[in-house]
Design goal:
Helix content is 48%, strand content 8%. The protein contains 30 helices and 17 strands. The chain is elongated, with a radius of gyration of 43 Å.
């Protein structure tokens, strides 16, 4: 069959045709467009992009016979042509289109008069257009800018079924939703139907909740909601801060009206007004901390805004007046809304720099929390998340897990300012009643325990950040004390290190008889008060350190080594403090005398000085000035009043000498001379600074932990005392790695974080 084409319609290959610079999928579309162009010569139209072109409606069909077959390729049902005039359907109504029965409402339905055939009406459901028995659930057959009259019959079927099913399937292609939306838009804005406005506004909000993930639909639907509110409701209610306000290159119209009224009335803007303005401004972009921690951001904004603008923000009224132009999503019409003579706050730039600065500072404060939640989203309500909140928000979290943790520490230390708490107690307050359970969350909270204390306003000892300390375990006792931001001190100062060593030696002396009394604690505290060049915060932390040493098994060798490294005057002060601690409880035991003997021996001092000091009650060098006054009012008065039994002291000295001889005899066992071939040269020791026996023992420990019985058996094989072997290895580790290596308990093992460093030292030798 020969077909004559108009001069402006040309084949474009692959069954397609071009006309007026556009390419069409079918000849029918190209002919329709050519006819439309010719009919409208001399009339200006809105230019459209090739990417958003909507084919023109089909030309009027010839007069059909009384009865025609409807459907696509003969698959539809046979129906008579309906002569229903175009009208708005406001309530659910049963109707048919192309022989398909469906229920619809809030739609335009019927046939347009011949005089209006070429006026665009993309949402009108013409009952006489074909509807197929097939379907197009993916919307693959229609263009970017859909029109019901130009849908293929199978797409019309899918659209009608979506309408009838309640328009609530979130997987529906957005093109179908837009066809329906065009009708709501026309009825609300072009027709200005006040009677239908409440139902349409409610429907728009419902659609936005279902299909708002589509950026384009969200923008158009939000703008139409604003238009509806402006046309049919009085925009007076206070806006709510939301991240959904930014959907165009202008402030939302409702927000502009609300703020314009306040500015026109000369009222200052409060924190909520400023926040809504900031979140709706097209040139202010919230960063990830704001979007991820939005509720916390709103609370922080309120606090910081009130600090910066305690009387509110005053804004000068601009000359520009508010004028709102609405551009329809269907491109079928535009509308202008007449607003009362209000200033247009969108033209004001003065406050924007203030908002930008406040937005940035709040984002920076929330950044630690945001980063933590980005890696651990399941920890949003945990104590760590509470600790990472900016300080003003932490104060309001009394009922949160972190708030309960802070209250627990406060109650524990309320009486004396210092409290002894166990790790299981702390973990229970953090929401982990079984702290010993191997769990990633438990490990995470144990690792970040220092941050939790800092945020709660408490310091604790032993704290590895301020000196060598054992690893946190269930049997560890912490000494907790109130301190702003955790009690940060400069632990590297020589004065602090000297005072710390003095407190350690005094605490070890007080604990030598396995009985600690208040007088001994007060003696240590008094010496810290008299120590020069340290602050009150230093003294609080050092007292907590001493109390922690008294509560936990202590390491003597490492403390003695640090004592030997002190200058002479500070070393004498530490010895003086140790003697005072021994005398403080007004009794002297053999174990205390042995401790002092070992101390003097390590320092290379004559041991007779110990007995003369204990006989006379003298403690050597005394402080001067105000410190001397405090000391004389405290410990010295107690020490001077102590009654010393000299006969008992002499007896103790003899007992101590006997014990020392007995211990020395343990190591005098005769050993058969080993064969030269079996003797291991010193160079074969695994670790420099340890002999072969201790090196071998350390190698066994870094390979696997041991039961205490097995450890003692291996020590016997190497002719070592278990406690002495542990102390020797720990002394070596402190020199090499600045930490203790061996942890004692039911299992003898190496601290986890030192295993790899020790292996590396072994390989390097």
């Amino acid at each position: 069959m020969l077909t004559y084409l108009p001069a402006d319609v040309k084949p474009a290959g692959n069954g397609r045709f071009s006309c007026g610079g556009y390419t069409f999928n079918s000849l029918e579309q190209a002919l329709s467009f050519a006819k439309r162009r010719n009919d409208r010569v001399g009339h200006s139209e809105r230019s459209v992009s090739p990417f958003s072109f909507v084919p023109a409606p089909k030309p009027p069909q010839p007069s059909p016979p009384k009865e025609e077959r409807s459907g696509f390729f003969g698959l539809g049902s046979s129906t008579k042509k309906q002569t229903v005039a175009e009208h708005w359907v406001a309530v659910p109504t049963n109707m048919s289109a192309g022989g398909v029965q469906f229920e619809g409402y809030l739609i335009y339905y019927g046939t347009r008069p011949r005089s209006q055939q070429y006026e665009r009406h993309r949402s009108l459901i013409d009952p006489n257009l074909d509807v197929s028995n097939g379907r197009d659930p993916q919307g693959s057959t229609f263009s970017y800018w859909p029109n019901y009259s130009e849908l293929r019959p199978e797409a019309r079927r899918s659209y009608l079924e979506w309408l009838s099913a309640g328009r609530c399937d979130p997987s529906t292609p957005i093109g179908y939703v837009f066809i329906y939306f065009y009708g709501l838009e026309r009825r609300l804005v072009k027709d200005r139907s006040e009677a239908d406005a409440p139902a349409i506004i409610s429907e728009l909000r419902r659609l936005l909740a279902i299909y708002g993930d589509n950026h384009s639909f969200k923008n158009y639907c939000s703008a139409l909601l604003d238009m509806g509110e402006l046309l049919f409701r009085n925009v007076e209610e206070t806006p709510t801060p939301t991240l959904d306000n930014r959907y165009s290159w202008e402030l939302p119209i409702r927000l502009r009206v609300y703020l314009g009224k306040k500015v026109a009335a000369g009222q200052v803007l409060d924190s909520n007004d400023a926040l809504c303005w900031t979140l709706g401004h097209p040139m202010l972009y919230p960063r990830t901390p704001v979007t991820r921690c939005f509720n916390e951001f709103c609370e922080l904004w309120k606090v910081r805004f009130s600090e910066q603008f305690p009387k509110g923000l005053s804004v000068r009224e601009p000359k520009a007046r508010l004028n709102f132009q609405y551009r329809s999503a269907s491109s079928e019409f535009n509308a202008t809304v007449t607003v009362d003579d209000l200033p247009d706050v969108g033209a004001i730039s003065g406050p924007i720099s203030k908002f930008e600065s406040l937005l940035g500072s709040c984002s920076d404060e929330l950044d630690p929390l945001s980063r933590f939640l980005g890696r651990n989203p399941e920890e949003k309500d945990s104590a760590i998340a509470g600790a990472l909140l900016p300080e003003p928000l932490r104060e309001n979290g009394g009922q949160s897990i972190f708030g309960q943790f802070s209250q627990f520490l406060s109650n524990a230390s309320k009486q004396t300012g210092f409290a002894e708490v166990r790790i299981p107690e702390i973990m229970a307050k953090l929401g982990f009643p079984d702290a010993g359970k191997a769990d990633e969350r438990v490990s995470l909270h144990l690792k970040r325990l220092p941050e939790l204390f800092d945020a709660a306003g408490f310091g604790f000892e032993p704290d590895k950040r301020y000196g060598p300390a054992p690893s946190i375990s269930d049997d560890l006792k912490l000494c907790v004390f109130p301190a702003d931001r955790g009690g940060v001190v400069n632990a590297n100062r020589p004065e602090y290190q000297a005072a710390r060593t003095m407190a350690e030696i005094a605490a070890l002396a007080a604990r030598a008889d396995d009985l600690v009394v208040d007088a001994e604690i007060e003696s240590i505290t008094s010496d810290l008060v008299s120590f020069p060049a340290i602050s009150d915060l230093d003294r609080s932390r050092l007292r907590a350190h001493a109390l922690a040493l008294l509560a936990n098994p202590s390491k003597l060798k490492a403390a003695t080594k640090r004592l030997c490294e002190l200058p002479g005057e500070q070393r004498q002060a530490a010895l003086t403090s140790a003697v005072r601690a021994v005398l403080a409880d007004q009794r002297i035991t053999p174990s205390e005398v042995r401790f002092l003997e070992g101390l003097y021996k390590a320092l290379g001092l004559p041991q007779d000085e110990i007995y003369s000091r204990l006989h006379s009650g003298e403690v050597g060098v005394k402080p001067t000035g105000k410190s001397a006054l405090r000391s004389s009012q405290g410990f010295d008065r107690q020490a001077a009043g102590a009654e010393i039994d000299h006969e008992k002291l002499a007896r103790l000295k003899e007992e101590t000498s006997a014990v020392s001889s007995m211990l020395a005899s343990i190591f005098r066992e005769d050993e058969a001379p080993a064969k030269t071939a079996d003797k291991k040269p010193a160079a074969e020791a695994e670790f420099a600074g340890l002999d072969s026996a201790h090196s071998s023992l350390l190698v066994r420990l870094i390979e696997a932990p041991m039961e205490s019985d097995a450890f003692e058996a291996i020590c016997r094989d190497h002719k070592l005392l278990p406690s002495g072997a542990i102390e020797t290895i720990n002394d070596w580790a402190f020199d090499a790695l600045d930490d203790y290596a061996v942890e004692e308990g039911e299992l003898i093992c190496i601290q986890e974080h030192l295993i790899e460093p020790i292996k590396a030292i072994r390989k390097a030798i």
